[in-house]
Amino acid sequence: MSHLTPSGDRPASGWTDPDRSDPARNDAPRRVKVGVGDLAVVSDGATLTTSGLGSCVAVALVDPETGIRGLLHAMLPSADGSVSRSPRPAKYVDSGLETLVDELASAGASPRRLEARLVGGAEMLDLTAAVGPRNVERARERLEVAGIPVVASEVGDAVGRTVRFLPGGDLAVRAADGFERTL
Amino acid sequence: MRVDVRALGACNRLAERGAERAANALGELTGSDLAVEVTGASVATGEDLAEAFSGRESIGVRVGLDGGLEGSAVLAFDADQVDGLLSVLPGGASMGRSAVTEVGNIALGGFLDGWANYLGRAIDMTPPRYFEADGAAVLPDGALAGDGVFLFESRLDATATDLDFSIYMLPDSGPFRDLVVGKTATAATAGAEGAGGSAAGATTAVPYESLSTFASLAKRGSANAADNVGMMTGLETTVDVSRLRFVPLADVPSEVGTEPHAGTVFELQGQPSGYLAILFSEESAAAVAEAMLPTEPDEPLGGTAENALRELGNVMTSGFIDGWANVLGTSISHSPPEFVHDIGSATVSPLVASLSRRQDYGFVIDAAIRMEGEQARCDVYALPDERELAAALERLAET
Questions:
Q1: Which residue of A has its CA nearest to B250?
Q2: Domain range for residue B277?
Q3: Which of A127, A139, B232, B280 is spaced 20 to 30 A from B150 at the CA atom?
């Protein structure tokens, strides 16, 4: 009978699994999927992907000098005023961006060199039309405060999108209508 | 027994993290990246589970649990994936059964590790037992006997290859019961651990029996919706699956998937409020619209088909929520249908985002309705507001 004992290693309180961000554990090239309300940082040749972006916003940050990249897929603009005690900072644009920048810095990126690409924030449904534009607005605000320039974006409209954040910093965006472009 | 929704959220978060550890362990073993797609706890009777798993053949490994957690856990995958699995395992086909057993041992060990840490108590795991099973026999011992059990289920997908695994865990009552009713101190302070599920400071307790009643109600709703589709389209309909599950809301979009879908969404108004989405694959949507129209539409999913699908959605939604108000003693209505045609997960993400302002986890009803064999199929997702549902279930228990 094997015996799993409690160790001093409590389940991590953060949201990103450190194993997934550690390039030493996997051989490149690989693909790292970022779910809804999730974020990930890579410093190897992995491709970061996130799919089914509707009203959510994806923020892709890269330090062009080191090539260290991070991708956030946030659902809501701000944790302020939320009654949910979310364990997931990446659920919100503001707390997600803060965590992403911290994790990029821990991985060796310079916050001063970061550049941002924004995708998503569509007005998918009349029922919930305001969510997407608010997510984009919040992302722009927080990036400006953090001094991170937005070098390209593909936001708004009423279309779902899927993104691939490639080594080198290019962001490939494919819309549900088949339209593809690289930011 | 009263289930503390926040404690259930904490348990779900543990299952999620356990599945992430299992995915990492399997990833290292097989050399491919695995991602946890969905983790949830279903509230189901043995009969529901038998129906949901009928026709599936699985192979896998099961272990018994003792100590901090009692019950059993299973790692399973579809029998037709066995060759694919063996090809990525060390030793591969020559090792066969023992390679699979080793995979199970590693993955389930990873899965349970987090629970042991969280509980602050050791979990003893019996040696892994290999099995080949038909239908619901794959599930942990005891799943089919109960008239309502919590079954934790995580699905793991390999990102590069066509491999997916499921981990099922059925905790026995006893220590687990203390966890979900919020008696266990660690679970009661789960918010600090990062597993909160409802409003700060508020404890939402749901009588288990009411939850079980609601699961039956949802199942009847699915049958009504299917009957209404039958009447509108003239196609023979069957409800394949109807489940009430407790899931992290953020997992719902990935469950819907990234294929293009067409259908309708509704806002539910009343107690509980929430959203309902009826989603077809493009081919199914076109087939159903065509079955409703006197002549073939010019475009498969053009304006005429849209109107047909709106009308169908209206009738399905009425059928689905019909009966809720009576049983719950509340009033529930729905908005006019909004037609959607996009990536499935992108369509539901704003609904999930909207509910996520108030909750991280939620009870989700999902039903799959099949029309005339495999000709068309649709999925219905109902996302009620957690606290309003809990309040309604509370009233239900009092009557």
A1: A36
A2: 206-398
A3: B280
